Amino acid sequence: MLIAEAKRQAGERSQSLAKRPGQGRGSALNSVFMPRKAHQQGLGSFLPGQSCELFQAGITFLGPHFEGRCKDLELVRKSDADLLGAVVEGHPSHSAIILEAMIHPLPDELLRLPHRTDVPFPKLTTLGVGGICRWLFEPATEPEAQAFVRACARENLQYRVLGGGSNLVVLGDIETPVLRLRFPAELKRDGLKLTAPASFGHIRMAQGAADHGLGGMEYASGIPGTTGGALRMNAGAYGRELVDILDTFRFLTPQGELVEKRPEPGEFKYRWSFLTGGHVGLAFTVKLAEGDRDSIRAQVLENMGKRGSSQPLSKRNAGCIFKNPTGTSAGRLIDLAGLKGFRVGDAEVSSEHANFLINHGHATAAEFAELMEVVKAKVREMHGIELEPEVEIWS
Ligand SMILES: Cc1cc2nc3c(=O)[nH]c(=O)nc-3n(C[C@H](O)[C@H](O)[C@H](O)COP(=O)(O)OP(=O)(O)OC[C@H]3O[C@@H](n4cnc5c(N)ncnc54)[C@H](O)[C@@H]3O)c2cc1C
Predict the structure, then answer these.
(1) What 3-state DSSP class applies to 175?
(2) 303 pocket-lining for ligand 1 (C-beta < 6 Å)
(3) 125 CB near ligand 1 (under 6 Å)
(4) How many helices (H) and strands (E) in the chain?
(5) Which atom of ligand 1 lies closest to the CA of 126?
(6) Mean of the per-residue pLDDT values for the chain?
(7) Which of 271, 293, 307, 380 is catalytic?
(8) Which atom of ligand 1 is nearest to the CA of 281?
(9) 227 C-alpha vs ligand 1 centroid, how far in Å?
(10) Is 199 close to ligand 1, i.e. is its CB under 6 Å away?
C-alpha cells in the first residue's frame, strides 16, 4: 500500500514537472528523501525490508546532500520514520520541497561530460577524511575541461578544482561540482624543456626529469600531488619552488578562455599563485639544465629518503597543516605546546613531525576539525601566536 501509493504519486509528479519549462533536466523525478541518520547507518537499518522494495519500485533515495538546499526540511524531520511517512503519504508541502530540491542538479551540457556522482572524499585525498563529492567531473581532454568551465560560467555555477588531494582537508559533503583533470599521462621533452599535463604526478615529473638527465627539479621529488596542484600552490622545498624553473604555463580563465603565457612578477608567491577562483591549470613547461643522470637520480633519491626519516609517511596525512609564522616553525610551536602524540579519536599530532596531523585509518572529518582547533588553541595559549592553515579546507 505504502509503496504503491508512493509510486503513483511519484509518477504523477514526474508528469506534471516534466511539463514545466526549463526543468526536469538530468535527474530522476521519483524520490524519497533519506534522512542523514539513515544514510550514515546504511539502508539496511532503515525501515528494514522496505528499502529494497522501494528501490525496485523505481523510487530514488536521496542522500543528505540535498538538505542544504531545502531549509524547511528541518521542520519536518521529527524522526526518520515520520519523515518517510510524510513523503510517501504525499504530505503536500514536504513532497513539494523535496522534489524542487532535486529537480535541477546540473545543466545537460555539463552532464554530457565524463563525471561520477557520490564519490567519497577519503578516496580522493591523501588524508582520507571527508564526506561525499556529489559531482566529480573528470575531463580527459582540454576541450572537455574548457566545455566544463564555459558551461559553469554560462550558468553562473561555482565549482572547485581538485588535483591529487594532498593539500586538502575536506570536512563535509561537497555539493558544488568538482573538476579533476584526467588527461593522458604524457611527458614531452624538447631540448632542455619538459612539459607535463596538469594531471601528471608531480613526483613522477621530477623522476622523469632525472631519467632524461635534466637537472633543476630534484627539489620536487618528495612533493606529492599533481603538477596542476603544484602550479596552483607554487609548490617548493629546500629553498626552491616551481616558479624558479617555470618556462610557460597554460590555463583556463574562469570564463573558459584558454591562455598560454610566461610567468610574470606577482603571479607566483610563497605557496600561492593567482590560479584561484575558477582558474584551471592545464599544463606547464619547465626549463632545466643538462646534467649527469646518475647524480641527478641520486639527489632525487636522497631527497625522498630525507622525507622518509622526518615525516610520518606510513600514515595518511596532508603534509604540513599550518603555515610557519614569521621567524619560527609551526611544528616547533606545536611540539613546545606538548602536543606530539595528542589524539582525538583516530586523528593524531604526529610524534615524528608535529606539524603533520595523521589519520590512523578511521579518523573522521569531525575528529580532524577538533584536533586542529585544539592545536590552535594550545599554541595561542602558550605562545600567543595564531596558527593559520597551510592546507586548504573544504566544507
Ligand atoms: C607528505 C606530504 C608532503 C608534502 N610536502 C610538501 C612540500 O615539501 N612542499 C610543498 O609545497 N607542498 C607539500 N605538500 C603539500 C602538497 O603536496 C602540495 O601543495 C601539492 O602541490 C598539492 O597538489 P595536489 O595536486 O595534491 O593539489 P590538491 O591538494 O588537490 O589541491 C590543492 C589546491 O590546488 C588547487 N588545484 C589543484 N589542481 C589544480 C589545477 N589543475 N588548476 C587550478 N587549481 C588546482 C586546488 O583547488 C586547491 O586549491 C606535501 C603534502 C604531503 C601529503
Answers:
(1) coil
(2) no
(3) no
(4) 13, 23
(5) 53
(6) 81
(7) 271
(8) 42
(9) 8
(10) no
Within a domain: residue 306? no
241 domain residue, yes or no: yes
Instruction: Tell me how many domains the chain contains.
Output: 4
Residue 164 lies in a domain: yes
CA–chain centroid gap for 34, Å, is 24
Pocket lining: 139 vs ligand 1, CB cutoff 6 Å: no
Query: By residue range, what is the domain housing residue 34?
Result: 2-99
pLDDT band at 310 (very low <50, low <70, confident <90, very high): confident
- 388 an active-site residue? no
Taking residues 255-266, what's their average pLDDT?
98
Q: Ligand 1: does its nearest atom lie under 6 Å from the Cβ of 311? A: yes
**Residue 36 domain-assigned?**
yes
Residue 227: its pLDDT value, please?
98
User: Residue 198: what residue type?
Assistant: A
Classify 167 as helix, strand or coil: coil
260: domain CATH number is 3.30.465.10
Point out the ligand 1 atom lying closest to the alpha carbon of residue 318.
Answer: 53
Mutational pocket test of ligand 1: of 123, 138, 142, 167, the residue with most ligand atoms within 8 Å of the beta carbon: 167
Examine the domain organization and report whether 167 and 234 are in the same domain.
no
Task: Write down how long the chain is.
Answer: 395
Q: Please determine, for residue 37, whether its predicted confidence score (pLDDT) is greater than 70.
A: no
- Which CATH number belongs to the domain containing residue 384 in this structure? 3.90.78.10
The residue that leads in pLDDT, 267 or 39, is: 267
Of 158, 179, 200, the last residue of a domain is 179
Full-model pTM: 0.79
Q: Is 225 a pocket residue for ligand 1 (Cβ < 6 Å)?
A: yes
C-alpha cell at 393: 579546507
pLDDT of residue 224 exceeding 80, the answer is yes
Q: Could you write out the DSSP letters of every residue in 220-285?
A: GGG--SBHHHHHHHT-EETTEEGGGTEEEEEEE-TT--EEEE---TTSEETTEES--TT-EEEEEE
C-alpha cell at 10: 511519484
- Cβ-based burial of 18 (10 A; exposed 0-12, middle 13-18, buried ≥19): exposed
* Residue 214 sits in the same domain as residue 175: no
The predicted-structure confidence for 335-394, as pLDDT tens digits, reads as follows 999 999 999 999 999 999 999 999 999 999 999 999 999 999 999 999 999 999 999 999
